[in-house]
Amino acid sequence: MAPYESDDTTTAGEVEEPRAGRRKAARYVVPVTVMGVAAATIGLVPALADSGDPDLPDITAAQLIEKIAQSDVERLSGTVKITTDLGLPNLGGLESGLLSGATGGGDGEGGSSADPSGRLTELASGTHTLRVAADGPDRQKLSLLENAAEYSLIHNGKDVWGYDSASNEVYHATVDEADAKERSAQQPPATPKDFAEEALKAVDDTTSVKVDGTAQVAGRDAYRLVVEPKQSGSTVGAVSIAVDGETGMPLKFTLTPSSGGSAVVDVGFTKVSFDRPDASTFEFTPPKGAKVTEDTEQDRDHGDFGFDKQQRGPKSEEDLAKGLDGLRMLGEGWNTVAAFDTGAGAGLPTGEEVGGDLGGFLGSLGDQVKGDFGKGTVFSTRLVNALITEDGKVYVGTVTKDALVKAAEAGK
Q: What is the pLDDT of residues 262-296, one digit of tens each?
């Protein structure tokens, strides 16, 4: 089915009708700013693997975005495949350990292998299969399927359970029923809808939005919404979202880089049902002999399944600025770069300064650059690039290395 050409090469200014709907949909689209992308980067496969070309009624980009915003699906079950290819260097598993340690999870001293704050970081790389189920804001279940084991995270009323079958360890926390809706909104992104809501915060005058035909995903007829930067210099090539034609729920999310090649993040249902899951799906009793860890920390916000407020990341530029010295946002749209001072007075030592094996190791992880800002090192992935200058300034964005250096020079 050919792309709908009516008024679909849309900018944010054209996605404005009606006014009330525009405000509602606005939160769904704006260039994914640096820190937000870092938090939302999980999964991606080859573009929309559609099987079929269903015949759906014509719809404009504005109408489809509104359809997503109005989607009220609260009950579902299914299987999700997540693939992430950031192009990170292979550190022999070190990166996974660092992520787990940073969030306090893992099976180190005093920790539990069932603590979700460590286990869910595994979704940040590689390919994973999840089973998901939801029945309103008070009951959700997510199971990470592994070779000969399974990790499950269950929220049922006031109880949150994590269970690692490989180690037979259990994590348990209790939460306030009054915060059920907020907890549901704060859980880590794991479904196409989670990623779509982050990416669709990125539409403004620097963005092209169009409906590019249809696809069939997990046996469902869907529209294809394509979001692309108009600016050059962004590492984001395009975001494709398969939107269920009946419910408006995103079924698949794919982010491809401007450099080409495989997708950076691909999250999609391979099987989905919108029927109410059986109540037993959310019931859990620790198996006999399991080691149970009770989370008794008073300062942890259990509403986000074990991620405290600092780990979850800020919700606004103001929140982010509170934790960073002099945070500034440089540029606009998809070329926005976050700049802040580490306060250390010096950046990372260069390979020349360190010398030897350590110098070579540091040099292999980043590229040395020079500019009006002085010297620095650029650390790159296929999506997010960061420049650390010799005087301790940091510039981060979903922009190319050249665009990052220009932003640093302009922000000097």
A: 999 999 999 999 999 999 999 999 999 999 999 87
- Adjacent-strand bridge partners of 371: 374
Structural domain span for residue 337: 317-410
pLDDT band, very low/low/confident/very high, at 20 (cuts 50, 70, 90)? very low
Q: What is the CATH number of the domain that holds 143?
A: 2.50.20.10
Residue 69 contacts residue 28 (beta carbons within 8 Å): yes
CB 150 within 8 A of CB 273: no
Helix (H, G, I), strand (E, B) or coil at 321: helix
> Pick from 153, 164, 97: which is nearest to 124 by CA?
97
Give residue 243's Cα distance to chain centre: 18
DSSP tag of 141:
E
Q: Identify the H or E element spanning 408.
A: helix 401-410
Task: Confirm whether 58 is domain-assigned.
Answer: yes
The whole-angstrom separation of Cα 366 and Cα 388 is 10
User: Which two three-digit tokens encode residue 294?
Assistant: 């009770």
> Does 196 map to a domain?
yes
Q: Is 274 exposed, middle or buried (0-12, 13-18, 19+ CB in 10 A)?
A: middle
Residue 75 tokens, joined: 């009950």
Element (H, E) at 375: strand 374-380
